[in-house]
Write a structure and sequence with these properties.
The complex is a heterodimer. Chain A is mostly helical. Chain A contains twelve helices and no strands. The longest helix of chain A has 27 residues. Chain B contains three helices and no strands. The chains are: A mainly alpha, B mainly alpha.
Chain lengths: 333, 130
């Protein structure tokens, strides 16, 4: 028994040192590409920390979104921004001041962590008492879909808004073009094979994650992120082509989840007495319907963001002729 | 409780590292990575508060856990917007940083007495010429 506890603490120590060490390395490493790839590894270690903290739902989300999708996005960006200057001298006053400031903030936060109240305030008991009313067994899903449903509703709206803001960066001339970040110019045969073999299995896993989400760790965000990653994989391998921003179907799919969620929430005013309240007896079916459409919307919105922006080459040259954007460039010797 | 405290301290350290990287990062992309490290530190600290609230048969307080899931998705949305802005900035102006005179000033570190090169000289190499 004692040995088991020690082993667990040892695992915690290894994960803690790895996460902190990787974070320091990400910030200090000279090569940008390494930092981007390192960030994905970092996301996986943070997911392990979430497992150890007894939060498998968060661990799944962190591994899928925090590590995978953000990493893919940063990887796409790193290929599209100019390289950093090869050698920079560190401006020591700035660096020392920044290090001192950061250390003070970290020390303050550490002091707050050490001074957390005992016993810890918790809503676990309240959730456990109210859980039977939702007919859902996974407490995290119950919080997301019932007790704090308004947070989840507006979060999915934020995702749609992010997609709109992202697309607003498309230059007018390129509006009907397809996004061009993902397709690999010459995908390796092994990649194409993988992109053919993985999606059927991945879709099964995603549907499973969504379906068990009401009783076990999982749910729409994890499933949606997995579907988006699979879609991105097929786009990288050139098996599917990313849709242009003016297509109707992807737009519809991206907003259908929040729209249905909102409609059911509004109907709750008349049927159950409050916004986002579910009528008795229909709780679980309604939650499943909302989760299903949200999964589709999350997958489509994430996938469309991952697909990136159309190439701006055409728009760039027109802007240069107008002389509007960009600083004037004079040759320097 | 030792476990929760350990991860709480890791969260604090991550916030410190992220903040430092956010200030001194050599380019917008590096600042964005540091920003995400900072964010994961905040989430981890919140996760520690969830862990300490374990009870009623749950391994952690489900309310903060659900809020962290919400936060992760919103953080992805913010990162996506930042990446889009960054790439468009690079396409339009050929620059990889929003800071004009700052950390990207390229000069050989062996000769600190040399006069400053214009900070944008290196970046213009990467700029597509129309």
């Amino acid at each position: 028994m004692n040995a088991a506890i020690d082993l667990g603490l040892f695992a915690d120590l290894v994960i803690a040192v790895s996460v902190a060490g990787l974070a320091l390395w990400l910030v200090l490493t000279r090569e940008r590409f390494r930092a981007v790839v390192g960030f994905m590894v970092y996301g996986l270690f943070v997911a392990l920390a979430w497992m150890r903290l007894g939060a498998p739902d968060v661990a799944l989300t962190e591994a899928a979104i925090g590590g995978g999708l953000v990493g893919l996005l940063l990887l796409g960006a790193s290929a599209r921004v100019p390289p950093e200057p090869a050698a920079t001298t560190r401006r020591w006053p700035l660096h020392l001041t920044a290090a001192l400031l950061s250390a003070v903030v970290a020390a303050g936060l550490a002091a707050a962590v050490l001074a957390l109240p005992e016993p810890a305030p918790s809503l676990a008991g309240t959730v456990a008492d109210a859980l039977p009313a939702t007919k859902v067994d996974n407490p995290v899903t119950a919080v997301l879909m019932a007790f704090r449903a308004v947070d989840t509703l507006f979060e999915t709206v934020v995702l749609v808004l992010a997609l709109i803001a992202f697309w607003s960066l498309v230059p007018d001339r390129a509006w009907r073009e397809r996004p061009a970040w993902l397709p690999s110019p010459r995908p390796a045969p092994a990649l194409v094979l993988l992109a053919r073999l993985l999606p059927p299995l991945g879709v099964l896993v995603a549907v499973h994650l969504f379906w068990i989400g009401t009783s076990q760790p999982g749910g729409k965000f994890q499933a949606g992120a997995l579907l988006a990653a699979l879609w991105a994989l097929t786009m990288i391998a050139g098996l599917t082509r990313p849709p242009a921003a003016d297509r109707r179907l992807p737009r519809l799919l991206a907003v259908i989840g929040p729209a249905v969620f909102f409609a059911i929430g509004l109907a709750g005013i008349w049927l159950a007495g409050d916004f986002l309240a579910y009528p008795t007896g229909l709780e679980k079916p309604l939650i499943l319907v909302i989760e299903a459409v949200l999964m589709i919307s999350v997958a489509v919105a994430l996938g469309l963001i991952l697909a990136g922006l159309p190439p701006a080459a055409a728009a760039l040259s027109t802007q240069d002729h107008q002389g509007g954007a960009g600083a004037p460039r004079e040759p320097r010797s | 409780m030792i476990q929760a405290t350990l991860y709480g301290l890791v969260g604090a350290v991550l916030v410190g590292f992220g903040l430092y990287g956010l200030i001194v990062g050599a380019s917008a992309l590096r600042k964005l990575i540091a920003f995400n490290v900072l964010g994961s530190g905040v989430f981890l600290t919140f996760g520690v508060i969830a862990r300490r609230g374990a009870g009623a048969g749950f391994s952690g307080d489900p309310v903060p856990q659900a809020l962290v899931i919400t936060g992760l998705v919103v953080a992805f949305a913010a990162t996506a917007l930042a990446v889009g802005l960054m790439v468009r900035l690079a396409e339009v102006s050929g620059r990889g940083d929003v800071d004009d005179e700052g950390t990207a000033a390229a000069k050989p570190s062996a000769a600190p007495a040399a006069p400053d090169l214009p900070s944008s000289a290196d970046r213009q190499v990467a700029r597509p010429q129309p």
